[in-house]
């Protein structure tokens, strides 16, 4: 029997725990602690494996149970709403309609059985195709020297379910791209994106994205750019090919399968991506190298 990656086992245990405790006030930070992952890493691996955020998964499971209760019991709708964790009938109705395409009253009257969703690994035919042609699944290991990076740094604070690296990276690149030709003493022809999470909890993820280039020295920099030194480290380089929407598949593989099943841990360094400076990093068919710092 094929051995499941360690991450799948941990996330499946979390899913089973959630399903057994839908009546409880589930604390996402406590769920993360049970997996022995950092909070941010847990959020990233869960989303990569299941295909949605922890908060969205919990809500979907509660709404699905509520759908069965509408069909199989005579409970008042407001009581079912409260049991699903909603404080008002209106909030419950909006969420229920969003998931099932009908109000709770309409759903009960129609008597249609819902499809019971389970949090299985988010494996699709598109994901499998990307594994074969859009990603180097075996990384190259590199002992990288210190990198001097200069660029435009954009800070963010977003809800976990709204975190979108592609959107944040695209905005940062658009701001920085007009300034590239004004950067002196560049170390190479590549451009990069550097991103880090500085704080994360159930309410928000805070961090920054920096569109940048590597330079040989911090001198003669134009106004409006900042400097960042990335220390020397051992890195795994993954090469991503394909349109921007497939970037999620690359991260899904790295953090949902390769990393948890490897002998490495992620070093406490910003994420770093490099690409041809003549193209947007999230254009139709870019080639992006993701440098994962290891320890």
Please outline the helices and strands.
Layout: H1 6-20, H2 28-35, H3 39-50, H4 54-72, H5 77-83, H6 89-100, H7 104-110, H8 125-133, E1 140-144, E2 147-158, H9 165-176, E3 186-200, E4 205-215, E5 226-230, E6 233-241, H10 247-258, E7 271-276, E8 287-294
Antiparallel strand pairs: 1-6, 2-4, 2-5, 3-4, 3-7, 6-8, 7-8
Helix pairs in contact: 1-2, 3-10, 4-5
Q: Can you describe what's shown?
A:
With 295 residues, this protein is an alpha+beta fold. The chain contains ten helices and eight strands. It folds into two domains: 6-110, Homeodomain-like (Arc Repressor Mutant, subunit A); 128-294, Regulatory factor, effector binding domain (Multidrug-efflux Transporter 1 Regulator Bmrr, Chain A, Alpha-Beta Barrel), CATH 3.20.80.10. Strands 1-6-8-7-3-4-2-5 form an eight-stranded antiparallel beta sheet. Helix 1 (6-20) runs antiparallel to helix 2. It is elongated. The two termini are 31 Å apart. InterPro entries: AraC_E-bd, GyrI-like, Homeodomain-like_sf, HTH_AraC, HTH_AraC-typ_CS, MarA-like, Reg_factor_effector_dom_sf, Tscrpt_reg_AraC-type_HTH. GO terms for molecular function: DNA-binding transcription factor activity; sequence-specific DNA binding. Pfam families: GyrI-like (PF06445), HTH_18 (PF12833).
């Amino acid at each position: 029997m094929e051995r499941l990656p360690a991450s799948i086992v941990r996330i499946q245990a979390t899913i089973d725990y959630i399903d057994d405790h839908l009546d409880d006030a589930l604390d996402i930070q406590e769920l993360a602690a049970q997996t022995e992952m950092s909070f941010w890493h847990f959020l990233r691996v869960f989303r990569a494996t299941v295909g949605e955020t922890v908060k969205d998964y919990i809500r979907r499971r509660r709404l699905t149970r509520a759908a069965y209760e509408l069909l199989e019991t005579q409970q008042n709708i407001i009581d079912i709403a409260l049991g699903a964790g909603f404080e008002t009938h209106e909030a419950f109705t909006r969420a229920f309609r969003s998931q099932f395409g009908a109000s709770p009253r309409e759903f009960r009257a129609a008597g249609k059985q819902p499809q019971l969703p389970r949090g299985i690994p988010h494996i699709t035919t598109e994901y499998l195709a990307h594994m074969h042609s859009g990603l180097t699944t075996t990384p190259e290991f590199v002992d990288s020297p210190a990198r001097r990076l200069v660029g435009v740094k954009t800070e963010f604070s977003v809800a976990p379910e709204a975190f979108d690296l592609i959107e944040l990276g695209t905005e940062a690149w658009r701001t920085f791209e007009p300034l590239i030709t004004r950067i002196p003493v560049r170390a190479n022809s590549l451009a990069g994106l550097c991103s880090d999470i500085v704080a994360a909890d159930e309410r928000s993820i805070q961090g920054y994205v920096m569109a940048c280039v590597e330079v040989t020295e911090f001198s003669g920099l134009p106004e409006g750019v900042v400097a960042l030194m990335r220390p020397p480290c051992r890195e795994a380089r993954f090469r991503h090919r394909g349109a921007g929407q497939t970037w999620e598949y690359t991260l899904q593989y790295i953090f949902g399968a390769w990393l948890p099943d490897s002998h490495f841990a992620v070093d406490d360094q910003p994420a770093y991506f490099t690409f041809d400076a003549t193209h947007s990093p999230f254009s139709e068919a870019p080639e992006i190298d993701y440098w994962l710092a290891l320890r």
